[in-house]
Amino acid sequence: MLQLTNISKSFGGVTALRDVAFALAPGEIHGLIGENGAGKSTLMKIIAGVHHDYDGTLALDGTIRRFASTREARAAGIGMVHQELSSVRSLTVAENVYLGAQPITRFGSIDWRAMQRGAREHLARLGIEVDPRAELGTLSLGLQQLVEVARVLFSGARIIILDEPTSALSPPEVERLFSVLRRLRDANHSLIFISHFLDDVLAICDRVTVFRNARAVATAACADVSKAWLIEHMIGAGHDALEESYTADRQLPPVPATPIVLESNGLTLAGAFRDVSLHVRAGEVLGVYGFMGSGQLELAHSLAGKLAADSGQVAVDGHAVRLRSTTQARRAGIALVPESRRSMLFAEEPVFKNVTIAMLRRIGALLLHPAAERAIAQRQARQLAIRPPNVDLPLRALSGGNQQKVALARWLAHLPRVLLLSEPTRGMDVGAKDDVTKIVRGLREQGIGIVVVSTEPETVLSLADRILVMRKGSVVHEFAAETVSKDRLLAAA
Amino acid sequence: MSEQAEQVAGVARGGMVAWLRGQMRNIAPFATLLFLLAFFAVASPSFATVGNVWNILTQVSVTGIIAVGLTFVILCAEIDLSVAAIANATGIVVAFFTMQDTSVNIDNLPLPGSVAIVLAFAACFALGAVNAFGMTWIGIPSFIMTLAMLQIGAGICALMVRGQIAYAVPKLVNTLGSGFIGPLPWIVVVAALALLLGHLVLTYTRFGRYVYMVGGNREAAEYSGVNVRAVIAAVMIISAVCSGIAGMLGVAYFGSAQQNEFDTYLLDSIAAVVVGGTSLFGGQGGIGNTIIGLLVLGVLNNGLDHVNVDSFLKILIRGLILLAALIINVYAQRMRTLARSQ
Predict the structure, then answer these.
(1) Among A336, A344, A368, whose Cβ lies nearest the Cβ of B209?
(2) How far apart are CA B305 and CA B307, in angstroms?
(3) A320 burial class (0-12, 13-18, 19+ CB within 10 angstroms)?
(4) pLDDT at position B337 over 80
(5) CA distances for B238 relative to A104, A224, B132, angstroms
(6) Chain A residues with CB inside 8 Å of B283's CB?
(7) How far apart are alpha carbons A386 and A380 in whole angstroms?
(8) Using CA of residue A393, residue A395, residue A399, residue A402, what is the dihedral sign?
C-alpha cells in the first residue's frame, strides 16, 4: 500500500536517513523502533509531507508521490496522531471529531444534531465509549487520544501514524487503545506504531522495523522475534558495537556509607510521577533514566521547586523542607541545571553576571561588587576551561557547550547541597561531553549529592554511580553496585 | 563597564558595524535629540536661550519623576498604566488633608502638613501594593491589573474632590513643587535627584541587578533562585511611590488639585521611557535612556511652541514621534539578534 525505497535525507552535514526502504501492507500494524536520533521521526515526517527535499521514492498504491505539504499528505489519506495531542481541549468530543468539517444546516449554521449523531455512530463503530457532548479536556488522557484517533480516521485517513501512543497511558488504557487499533486493522486500515516500549510493540504489531544510525537495519514479523532481539538490533551487536561507546558493561561502584543528603518519600505529581521515594548520599551521583514522558524531568523540576508536588515529603540533610518555589529550594540547598540552557541563562548579559547571579547575596547584601564577581567568574572559567576565557563577553557569544559550562559554573562557584542535572550533555559534541563528565566527577569528590536525570542511556551510564529507572511516572528498577549495560537499562525501562 | 564589554564583543564578532547595530537602541534616541535641538535652534531665535533651558527642564520634571519608577517596571518587562491615576490620587490626598481656603467647598480633614504628607505616601504605597498583590499573588497580567488601578485611582480622585478644586498643599510640598533655589526650580532638583537615585539603585545594587535579570529572562532568574515575585512586587511599589511624589509636587506646580489633571502624564511617561530606548521586552536600557527620552519629548513639546505650529497638529506630531520610537525599539531588538547571528 505504501512503499518507500532508497530514501536518504540529510540536514546540513548530518545524515538523518541513509538508503532506507520501508513497506506498509494493507491491514497491518507496523512497529517502528530505534533510539532517539536513529531516523524514525525523519522518515515519518517524509511520509506525512513535512519534508519533501529527500532522495528516493515514495509510492502510494503503486503511484509515485512526493507530498509538498502536510495538507497534501492528509488529502492522500495519511493521518498522524502526535505524542502531544493536537485536539482542542475546550471543545466537545463531537466538535473535535468534526474539526474543520462541521455539518451545516440549510440555513448555514452548524448542524449540532447531525454532528452529535454522526460522532456517536463513528465512535461506536470504533468501540470507543464516550459521550460526544463531553468537553474533551475533562476526559482522561487515554480517551482524549482515542478521540484524536477517531478524528484522524474521520478526516479520511487510511494510513495512521501513531507517535508514542502508549507513553502516557495506564495498562487498562493501553488495552483499550489496542482493541481500537485491532478493529482498525481488521477494517483494512494500515497503522504505523512508533514506540520506545518494546513490550507494547510486540503485543500489538504484526511486523517491526528497527532503525539504527540513520538506517533501517532489520524488519521482522513480531511473532518471530523477542525483546532481546529487538534491543540487540537497536544498539548494534558484535562488529557494529565496537563503533559505539557505552555498549560495554559498566561496573557500578559499591554504595558509599556517607550520610544521605537528599531523601524523598512518596513524592507525587498528578500526570507526571507518583510515589517516588529516593535518596542520594553525599559524594554520590544518582542517575534517573526513563523514556521521554516517564516523569523524570518533572521530578527534577519538582525537587527544584519549579513544579509543586501534590503530595509526599522531601528532606535535605535529614530536615524536612518545603519546595513550593525555587527560592525555597535554593534556600534548602537544592540547585537545578535544567535541560534547556535558554531557560537558565541570560543571553544578553556578560558571562560573569551569569555565573554570579545565584550568589550575589554572599558577595554583598546591598551593593554589587563587580570586581569580586569578575574574579569569581574568572576562576571558574579557568577551572572549567571556558572558551573564550573573557568573562565580559555577552553569553550569546559562546558556543553551546561553553554555555552549558557557564550554567554549571553558576553552582560550582557556590556549592549547593544537592545538584540536579537535567539532560546535562544533550546536543553536545564528544569533547564537551567529556568535559562535563569530568566536572561532575570533580563535584562528587567535594561531597555533594548529585542527581542526573536523562532520557539518554549513555548520559546516565557515563555519569551515575547508582541508577533508578522510571517508567510512566513510577520508579520500576534500581541498579546498584552491579554490572549494567545499555541493553539491560533499556530492557528495564 | 558594560559598554566596554559590548565593545569587546562587537569587535570579536567582526567590527564596528556589528557593534553599532547592537548599540542602535542607545544611539537612535541620542541622534534624535541632537537633531531636534539643532532644528529648533535654527528655526527659532527664542529656542536656544538659557531661560528656555530651565523651561524645558521644568516642563519635564513631573514626567521625569514618574518615569523613574516606570523605568523599573518596563525593565522587568511589565507595564504600569496606573501611574497618572496614582499621581492624581496622591496629589488630591495631600490637598484633602490640608487646610483649604474657605471658598473651597470640599468636606476635607485638615491635619498638620507632615501628617498630610505621610498619609499621601501611605496612599500611593498602598495603591502600589494592591497592584503588586494582584500581579504576583493572584496572577493578573500587569496590563489588566494596572488598567483596573487606573479606574480605581480616578474613582478615589472623584470621590474626594466631588468636582471641586482644592488649592492649598503643605508648605514643604509647595516649596518643592513651585519654589526656587536661586535660579533653580526645586522641582527640577527633585526630578534630577530621583533620576540619580534610580540610576544608582539600578546600576550598583543587588536589587538593580535582579531587575535587569528578571526582565532579561524571567525563567532563568527563577532557576537562579531569584525571588521573582518579590522583585516584581517591589518595582510596582517603587513605580507607585514615584508617581505619588510626582503627584504631590505636580499639584503644587499646577497650583491646584482636581480630577483628571494628570491624564496626559500616563502617555508622556511611557513615551519618555520607550523613546529613550529601554526595551519593551525588558532587560535592556536604564535611567540614562529615560533621561534622553524625557529630553526628546521636552524639546519637541517646547520647540513646537517656539516655531508656531498649529496646536492641534502638535498632538498628531507627538503621536508620530512615539510611533517612530516604537519602530526603532522593536527594530533595535532585531538588530541585536542579527548582530548575534553573524
Answers:
(1) A368
(2) 6
(3) exposed
(4) no
(5) 56, 72, 10
(6) 346, 348-349
(7) 8
(8) positive
Prior bond to A388 cis, omega within 30?
Answer: yes
Mean pLDDT of A179-197: 91
The length of chain B in residues reads 342
Give the whole-angstrom CA distance, residue A283 versus residue A266.
24
Examine the predicted complex and report whether its ipTM is higher than 0.90: no
Residue reference for cell 551593593:
A367
* Dihedral, CA of residue B153, residue B158, residue B159 and residue B162, to nearest 10: 160
pLDDT at A293: 76
Q: How far is CA A23 from CA A6, A203, A309, in A?
A: 12, 20, 45
Residue with cell 569578575: A374
- Inspect the interface and report whether the beta carbons of A335 and B225 lie closer than 8 Å: yes
Q: State the SS3 of B31-89.
A: HHHHHHHHHHHHHCCCCCCHHHHHHHHHHHHHHHHHHHHHHHHHHCCCCCCCHHHHHHH
Out of A343, A349, A353, closest to residue B223 by CB: A343
Does any CB of chain B come closer than 8 Å to the CB of residue A338? yes
Nearest Cα neighbor of A360 from B39, B208, B13 is B208
Q: Residues 402 to 421 of A: which have CB under 8 A from any B CB?
A: 410
Cβ–Cβ gap A357/B213 under 8 Å = yes
Mutation to test the A interface, candidates B4, B24, B224, most A Cβ within 10 Å: B224
Of all residues in chain B, the one with the smallest CA distance to A420 is B223
Q: Which three cell numbers stand for residue A306?
A: 519549579
Among the listed residues B305, B275, B283, the one whose alpha carbon sits nearest the alpha carbon of residue B46:
B305
Tens digit of pLDDT for each residue in B93-126? Answer: 999 999 888 888 888 888 999 999 999 999 999 9
Given a contact cutoff of 8 angstroms between Cβ atoms, the answer to whether A20 and A218 are in contact is no
- For A328, the closest chain B residue by CA position comes to B225
Contacts of residue A395 in chain B, CB cutoff 8 Å? none
pLDDT in tens, A440-492: 888 888 889 999 999 888 889 889 999 999 988 899 999 988 888 888 888 88
B224/A366 CB distance under 8 A: no
Yes or no: say if B298 and B59 are a contact pair by the CB < 8 Å rule.
yes
Of A9-23, B3-17, B147-161, B195-209, the range with the lowest mean pLDDT is B3-17
